[in-house]
Specification:
The protein is α+β, with helices and mostly antiparallel strands. It has a single domain, classed as Beta Barrel (Lipocalin). The protein is built from four helices and eleven strands, in the order H-H-H-E-H-E-E-E-E-E-E-E-E-E-E. The radius of gyration is 17 Å and the shape is globular. The N terminus is likely disordered.
Length: 207
């Protein structure tokens, strides 16, 4: 195993250890943001966002064709997404007093760490997701007991990106047969789908 792989594996293990310290602690930061709408989420989604945990499962990653593939591959590199095909996804969900914390790794190698900070409540607010240099304001809609994100604005290194330059993102999480369905797709008008990944995850034995 080369040095870069050792570093990546160490990063994943450090994140899992850090999240293990808090992921089993109950937090109502998500429940308080949803307020009375929280009960309309699937009970498994409610529990996941109250106590945290680790989800694992296989996801399928796809890229567009032609120009969409070129653009999508560039975006994917910035997000540490692997090549097209089936990959093992691990998601660690935890909380602190100010934010919802997500650690995402593919094949226990690549690592993306995101912080979600609530603003207001569901009725009049949004979440701020911070992932590296990227910051997004995200509203939430509940459909069929699932959690659907809706992007309001994007900043890169603190600079607002004009809405017409921002790719369209479709992202949701819902429950199917006791497992967690994750779906993310990024696309551009006239170009089409840049990339997507989707799959069913379940709680690991460690959660």
């Amino acid at each position: 195993m080369d040095e870069s792989c050792l570093v990546k594996n160490l990063q994943v293990k450090n994140l899992q250890v850090k999240n293990q310290q808090v992921k089993n602690m109950s937090s109502e930061i998500v429940k308080n943001w949803f307020a009375e709408q929280f009960e309309y989420l699937d009970p498994l989604l409610q529990q996941l966002h109250l106590t945290g945990g680790q989800l694992v499962g296989d996801v399928e990653i796809s890229y567009g064709i032609g120009l969409a593939h070129i653009i999508g591959a560039r975006f994917a590199r910035k997000m540490n997404l692997p090549a097209a095909g089936k990959h093992r996804l691990t998601v660690d969900i935890s909380h602190n007093q100010q934010a919802l914390l997500w650690g995402r790794s593919f094949n226990n190698q690549t690592l993306v760490y995101s912080i979600f900070k609530p603003v207001g409540t569901m009725a009049d607010g949004y979440w701020v997701e911070e992932t590296g240099n990227l910051s997004m304001q995200l509203a939430v809609e509940i459909k069929d007991a699932g959690w659907y994100w809706r992007c309001l604005s994007v900043k890169y290194r603190g600079v607002s990106i004009p809405s017409w330059l921002v790719p369209k993102t479709t992202a949701y999480k819902l429950v199917e047969g006791g497992k967690y369905r994750f779906y993310v797709e990024v696309s551009l008008p006239l170009v089409g789908s840049l990339f997507s990944y989707q799959g069913l995850l379940e709680k690991s034995a460690e959660s």
